[in-house]
Each structure stands twice: as C-alpha cells, then as structure tokens.
Amino acid sequence: MKIKHNKKRNTAFVYEILIKEATVAILKKDTKRRNNVINIIKKHFKSDSLLRKDLECYRSLYENQNLTQLTSEKIIKEVKLQKRLLDAARLFKQQTALIHDINKEASSSIFNNFIPNYKTLATIDQIFSDRISPKNQVILENEIVKNMTKQFPTKEVVEPIDNIIYNTFVEKFNNKYESNLLEEQKTLLTYYIASFADNALELKVFLNEEIARLKNKLEEAKAINEIKSDTDMLEKTNKIIECLNGFFNKTIDDSLLLTVMRTQELVKEIYTDVSHD
Prior knowledge:
The chain is mostly helical.
C-alpha cells in the first residue's frame, strides 16, 4: 500500500520550490519577492540547521548520476542511516516553522510550483518512511538506483531543446516561465540561490569554471568566418571576453549573474548557428 505523500513535509521539495520562486523573482526583477524568499532560505537552510542536514540526505540521492549500481546502493544505505539519526521531532518543528514563514512572508501558492523531478523527490520520501513493506521498499530503492545510474543525455539528444534562440531573454522568460532556459543557465541560477545558504562556496567554484569555459568558447569563436570577417562583431567579442576577465574580482550579484547568463545564451547561439551552416 502506497503512503500518501505530504509534499510540505518533503524538505527537498520545499527547498526546490523556494529555489524556483527566487529564480523567477530575480529574472522578473521583483526585488521584494526575491528578498522574502531568499530570507526564508537563509533562515531555515543554514549549514548547521537540521533542515539542511535533511536536505543533504535527499540531495545525495537525486543529484548524483552516472554512478555504478554498487556505489548507488552504498549511498542509499548510508543516507538511510544518516536520516534515521536525525531528531524527527525537532525536524518536524523546523518544517512547521518553515511552512509558516512561507505562508506568511511569501505565499502558499509557492507549494503549487511545478518541479520537474517531483516524482523522484516523492519516491525518496517514501523510502525514508518506516511504514512501507519490505517489498515496496526494495522496489522504490531500485527506482532510485536506476535514476542514479542513468547516463547524462548526449548533445545529440538535447540538441532540439538547446537550439531554441531567444529574441529577448527576460521577455521570453516571463512569457514561458523558464521553460526555455538553457541547462547551463538553470544550473547557474540554482547555485546562485543556494549560495545564500552555504556562503556561496559552490557558486564561486561553478562560476569560475563557467566563466573560463565561456571565455574559451568566445576565443575559439573569433576564428569563425562570420566573426573574424566582421570588424564590429570581432570587437564586441573581445569586449565580452574582457568583461568576463573582470568578473573574477567582482562581487557576485544579480547584475553579474544576468550578464553571465546572457553570455551563455550568446555562446549557445553562435555554436548553434555554426552547426547549422
């Protein structure tokens, strides 16, 4: 018998909907909404909080892919042990406080945000329960192992989605509610919002790697006929590279974030056009 899933008590689900809500607010330049959601994240998902520890249990199972079956099974075993060591009563109280703050400081409608990996999060929540049969426990764990051993899609598979070209980034985002965001843009936004709970450590690492990747791509693009034969385009490409060089010493804020995202979009457009020539 399947247990009813209480998504408001699923720490990972609540965290993901907050990330999405903050992302939407940033790109729509809704400062008040952005600040309210980020304050909730900062308050409840501090590195030493029980909610953060609970979140890490979930994330260990839904953020890891390309693993072997043996490694996946070992991770599940360790995660279940760590989950059992959490103080259930204290966790329940912290979840209650989090739900209260979302309803009061943001909106209860946040709980209706669409999360693509909702089914996976619900499955993980089920395997943490002690109210399911051994048979169902094994079946659900096999589903998680299948997800953890899944290979990332190749470029050929994702190409139809990645080839979408935006006319105006923010306008398109507002109209389609992030459905056309590139994967690298989604990743950057996720790291950015999550940085308010982990002192931006993971964001800084990712941003340094991503800026370096974009610079290399733009340097390579200068050899493309359409760019090297057009003085204006070549000059603009050099200016973008120079701008990226200056980001290493800048404070990470919304302006820097959007500039990097537009550069991600530009690089995608350049190489999409080249591949179609």
